From TrEMBL:
Signal peptide: none annotated. It is found in: Cytoplasm. PANTHER family: RNA-BINDING PROTEIN KHPA (PTHR34654:SF1), UPF0109 PROTEIN SCO5592 (PTHR34654). CDD domains: KH-II_YlqC-like (cd22533). The gene is khpA. Belongs to the KhpA RNA-binding protein family. One of its GO terms (molecular function) is RNA binding. Keywords: Cell shape, Cell wall biogenesis/degradation, Chaperone, Cytoplasm, RNA-binding. InterPro entries: KH_dom-like_a/b (IPR015946), KH_sf_prok-type (IPR009019), KhpA (IPR020627). SUPFAM superfamilies: Prokaryotic type KH domain (KH-domain type II) (SSF54814). The keyword tRNA-binding does not apply. This is RNA-binding protein KhpA.
Length: 76
């Protein structure tokens, strides 16, 4: 899943080397914290959050076979 997020996000940003993903796993959920360069935040979020929503939709669909809830958080 981490590779999928990187594959989606890296072409969108100006600083692909700054893309980092931290994974936290609990009993019933997996949280992915996506960190990008401060200058790329607007590109990852998009107008009215459309790009972020599209990324989340793809990630959630890909992870639907897992029996845990997936959460994608975007931060600096």
């Amino acid at each position: 899943m981490k590779e999928l997020i990187e594959t989606i996000v890296k072409p969108l940003v100006d600083f692909p080397d700054d893309v980092a993903i931290q994974v936290t796993e609990d009993d019933d959920r997996i949280t992915y914290l996506l960190s990008v360069n401060k200058n790329d935040m607007g590109k990852v979020i998009g107008k009215q959050g459309r790009v972020a929503k599209a990324i989340r939709t793809i990630v959630y669909a890909a992870g639907s076979q897992q029996h845990k809830k997936l959460v994608l958080e975007i931060g600096e």
